[in-house]
Amino acid sequence: MTAVAIAEPGRLDRIRLPMPDPSEGEVLIRPRYVGLCGTDLELLHGTASYFRDGRATYPHVFGHEWWGRVVDDDSAVVGHTVVSCERCVRCRQGRRQLCQRMSEVGLYARQGAAAQYIRMPKHAVTRLPDPLAQPWAVLIEPAVTVVEALTRAGCARTDRVAVVGTGTIGLLAVQLAAARGGLVDAIGIDEAGLKLAAACGAEATYLTDDAPSGAYSLVVEASGAAGAFRDCLRLAEDGGRVALVGVANEPVDGLIPGDIALRGITVHGIRHGLDHYEQTVALFADRVFDARGLVAEIVPVTEAQRAFELLAHGRSGAPKVILDLGVDW
């Protein structure tokens, strides 16, 4: 079969791989659409932690946001990024997103979905109703983490919420927080992204330096920028909560841990939303999550290099670039 792989930093190649041979408890799937995000850019550039620590090697088949059709019955399914072992202590405790033997599709230990076929454990896919079998269904994967973040942080009608970042995660967080009844403000650095956040339900939008200090009972960090965590602490009221979704791998200058303690701020580290796939599918079906306006472009997989260039340089506002695998490779 054919797949698209990162051959070395900065270079994609089409490669040939053996057809996956599913074992008992697995299914063979034809991926249909793959979403690209900042993590995929880090993989392409060779800066992702998975390469630094040896969990990923070249050639690397990417693709962790995706949906496809099961070969046996043509049913549509969303693939999970995190594949838990279902047997370790954490899995048995109901903390599957912290599985001690996890693998992650398209990141490490499992082939990504930028390929003609992929095999998956049956417990690591969720049925996608036919009306939702649309290109934007790749957004279900990032949306499960948003559900986890607002659930863990206890987002309620009494909250005033700040969402920092206007990428995919940030815009989805604005939609869900608004649906849960709280007042939601969006904060970022991209004027077009802030305009889109207003369309997603934000009551007010601010450039980062203009956002009011100490005004929010719940702050969602969705940008992934290291300095944004410091901004979140400034925005949170005393006794407030911060849901840390963005993954920054650099130290934060000027961060004083004592301020967190003395102000009584609770920080929730959000790993993933593995247990929220079915709920998230239902939220898309009910239009709580709405993908309209979030997709920048759908690009044929044969133009994958252009898709990455668009992701890195050619967009403002709509955050999601999607690869269409339903073409003649």
Helix content: 25-40%
Shape: globular
Give the low-confidence spans: none
Please give the alpha-carbon distance between the first and last residues: 10 Å
Can you count the beta strands?
19
Helix/strand/pairing class, anyone? alpha/beta
How large is the share of residues in beta strands? 25-35%
Radius of gyration: 19 Å
- Characterize the main sheet: 7 strands, mixed
H-E order:
EEEHHEEEEHEEEEHEHEHEEHEHEHEHE
On the 0 to 100 scale, the average pLDDT is: 95
Count of alpha and pi helical runs: 10
Description of the structure:
- With 329 residues, the protein is an alpha/beta fold.
- The chain has 10 helices and 19 strands.
- It has helices spanning 38-45, 49-52, 89-92, 140-152, 168-179, 191-199, 226-235, 257-262, 277-285, 304-313, and strands at residues 2-8, 11-16, 26-36, 60-61, 65-70, 76-79, 82-83, 103-105, 109-110, 118-121, 125-127, 160-164, 183-188, 204-207, 216-221, 236-244, 266-269, 295-300, 320-324.
- Strands 3, 5, 6, 10, 11, 18 and 19 form a 7-stranded mixed sheet that branches. A 6-stranded parallel sheet has the order 14-13-12-15-16-17, sandwiched between helices.
- Helix 6 (191-199) links the parallel strand 13 and strand 14.
- It starts with a strand and ends in a 5-residue tail after the last strand.
- The mean pLDDT is 95.
